[in-house]
Amino acid sequence: MNNTLRMVLVLVLVCIVSALSLSFLYVKTQPRIEENKILKEVKIKQELIPEAEKFVIKSLGDNLSVEQCYDKNAKLLGLIVNSYCQGYAGKIEYLVAVTTYTPISIKSVKILSHKETPGLGANVTKQKFLMQFVGKTGDKLWLKKEKTNGEIDSITGATITSRAITNSLREMLKNNKLEEFIEKLENKSVLSKPKGEHTTQTIQQQPQEFYSVE
Amino acid sequence: MKQLLKIFFNGIVKENPVLIMMIGLCPFLACSTTANDAIGMGIAATFVLTCSNVIISLIRKIIPHNIRIPVFIVVIATFTTVVDYLIKAYFPALSESLGVFIPLIVVNCIILARAEAFASKNNVFYSLIDGIGMGAGFFVAIVILGIIREFLGSGTIFGSKEMLQVPAVIMILPPGGFLAAGVVITVVKYIENKIVRRTKVLSNLPSACEGCKLKSQCIQEKIV
């Protein structure tokens, strides 16, 4: 009995100490982890559309959201579509800069996060693959080996990943909601100012407050 | 001092966890597709191994024998989560490539094996040295495999520009991992056997050989 009690006590004690130290560390590191995530997203967005300083997010259905990017003087610089697809080993999140007129074509693509195999599927983040999408419209987004008018070379050893991204981008460009959204933008003539007042701060200072939802 | 060096090099050479003792093969194969990933995994596993060795050695006297394994696992899992959080917070770039593999450290049996075989029987300082030595052994092994697989599979070394015209993609895939690991282990075993044989022969020399001029020649030609 005494022995059993001792075993229970030691195990409970070890678990409590472990749980306490882990929760302490979680509280300490979590803000930094979140911040890293936002900084990374902002950095990628600025790579897609340099000089963009303000982003107005609008959600278009469950896996699609569009961000209008404005520079300091509230001039519309471009659109960034945020979406994801199912890759080989999990969700692949990506950001795409698209044209602000129809027919929509891709200006550039960046991968936000993925869980693909290192050395194979993880090569989707390489420029060599992503550069292929630049300037393409929806009907050309097929893998070369799957359709004659396709213009995308898949990554060696990672056909599933390449196909997932290509298909997802194609469907995104053909999405009715996205088309409607962009047509509306065109009809608004020269977009002078985004609705509502947005403060212009530098992103590095306060990333969180930089987003406003339309 | 001599004792410390012995413990340290024991982990790298004589009892190298992967190449000689054949434990921890799962992360050895899974994280060696590129040399950079291998380095990250090697460092992370060494850190967890060293920390868990120290803690387990500290509490070894209060752990009842029957529940030692659950306690070891809790300690190891705690340090793995610590590494996970720290890497995510302070090395976001590394966490992108390693993120999937960090939780794998929990089930890395090198760590449990050292906790059971060494840390629970030796003092804190020796356990610390053993952790670093074993970690270094794992690090060396996984980086060697990482370099081989990355060079043959993608034609690069540490992410440099491509050097092979047509890389053999299979070397990055799981089968290539087994092939490369098999070759590396074969080479190590071959060398080990040679050394073991030599020492065995030297210690089993017939007494008549003492003082014989042809002694070294006999050993070289494996006559004895």
Q: Biggest protein-protein interface?
A: A-B, 27 and 35 residues
User: Oligomeric state of the chains?
Assistant: heterodimer
Helix content of chain B: 55-70%
Spans of chain A with pLDDT under 50 lasting ≥5 residues?
Answer: 189-214
Helical residues, percent of chain A: 25-40%
Mean of residue pLDDT values of chain B? 85
Strand order across the largest sheet of chain A: 5-4-3-2-1-6
How do the helices and strands follow one another from N- to C-terminus of chain B? HHHHHHHHH
**What's the tally of helices of chain B?**
9
Tally of DSSP helical segments of chain A? 4
Query: Mind describing the biggest β-sheet of chain A?
Result: 6 strands, mixed
Radius of gyration of chain B: 21 Å
- Strands of chain B, total number: 0
Summing up helix and strand content along with how strands pair, one would put the structural category of chain A as alpha+beta
Shape of chain B: flat
Summarize model confidence as the mean pLDDT of chain A: 79
How much strand content do the residues of chain B show?
Answer: under 5%
Structure classification of chain B: mainly alpha
Cα separation of the termini of chain A: 66 Å
Strand segment count of chain A:
6
What does this entry show, briefly?
Chain A is an alpha+beta fold and 214 residues long. Chain A contains four helices and six strands; from the N terminus they run αβββββαααβ.
